[in-house]
Amino acid sequence: MRSALPLIALVVLLTACGGKGGGDESQSSGLGAGVYADAGCGSCHTFEAAGSKGSIGPNLDETDTSVEEAVDQISRGGNGMPAFGDDLSEEEIQQVAEFVSGGEGSAAGAEGGAVVGPFRPSSQRLAGCLDADCRRQAFGNIAFREGPKPALDLFEEKQKDDSAVESDCHRIAHTIGSASLQHFDGSVAGALSAGRATCWSGYYHGVVEHAFNGTRRPALGEKSRSICVGDDIRRTSFIAYQCVHGLGHGLMIHTGYDLPESLRVCDELSTDWDQTSCHAGVFMENVSSSYGIKSKWLRDNDLIYPCNFVKERHKLYCYLMATSRILAANGYDWKKTVATCHESDEGWVATCMQSLGRDASGTTRQNTTRILEICSLAKGMARECVYGAARDIVSNDAGPKRAIPLCEGSPQSMRAYCFEGIGTILGGMRVQRDERRTACRRVTQRYFEDCARGAVAL
Questions:
Q1: The CATH number of 7-101 is which of 1.10.15.40, 1.10.10.1400, 1.10.760.10, 1.10.8.60?
Q2: pTM of the predicted structure, to 2 decimals
Q3: Whole-angstrom Cα distance, residue 356 to residue 198?
Q4: Predicted pLDDT of residue 236
């Protein structure tokens, strides 16, 4: 087993070494091996995978480092090592980092842990909390010791009259979920079945995002396929979606925000539906980190990125999250956001406008009048915005009650499509086709067929 060495000895990959000496590229494979050889790393390091026997730097066969540590050291340098961020592309740095670490990355280092570890209880109580971290910890403590129901009950009560709790509700719900996983001794099924879809189902996401703790990169695919299984999780599409969506969050957190790796593991899930649902969590975490981390897969000079970079099969949920990135970057200028959406890849502008509706709903706390005002800025694409807002409200509430006035108050030409949007989320909360149709009939008589179309097309 490799020993864990101080960072200076871990990844002094390119210290003063240069030129082509020392490595036999024929004994290695892959793009990372090529970068390793071309950079002359072998003249400094012994590394069996590359056939190199250099002795100036540490023996890489005896070190244990993560991809992220290697990327950081190569990019920034330090401790006697020059920075190579300007000499190698991001892709080349990633490739050589993966090569020398064996692809076993994690933001926490050699043990393969997540950006944050399992929830750690404390004696903190809600009374006296003045900041978000304190409130999250306090709610988590309740869930850890008493289970999710008391924590969620108090949480929902506080949302009604405490604006600080309400504005941070999704992150608090994540923490309650994480703590509940500990309460149930790591049983994902037990924790999920005891929770509920408060505040955009953050509880479910919090449960699953910590289920990777202790898992090494080579085992992520197998671990991912084992989490969201069983009747308790698969009893409805809604719960199954929240679980698999949570996988996407967890993969990003566990790999240190490695977007390509997270998407790759998602694509190892058993069905197209699971894969796409997992993509949703990956892109949400990329745009809006659960832990305040700025992903390198965002560009200040290209607010559509990475949607215009990823493969076609990965674009759907990237574009469904696109405006969260755009709005945060432009100071919540809705007109500019509409204009930026029009810069989307061909065929994806409508999806970006659905994202606009989702953000209009979330930002206004589901205020129908304000949502319709914002969506009107999209002009010919306004129906897509309203559709996205309706879906968001049903998802947030785990029910259609507050979405109905939005659809009924929208322009006549948009109402059928709006009710179809309600159906797409409502249907996921029922198992049988007849149950889905019945749920839509309770929502609307006039637009029943539109709602049902969305509900049964899952």
A1: 1.10.760.10
A2: 0.70
A3: 22
A4: 85
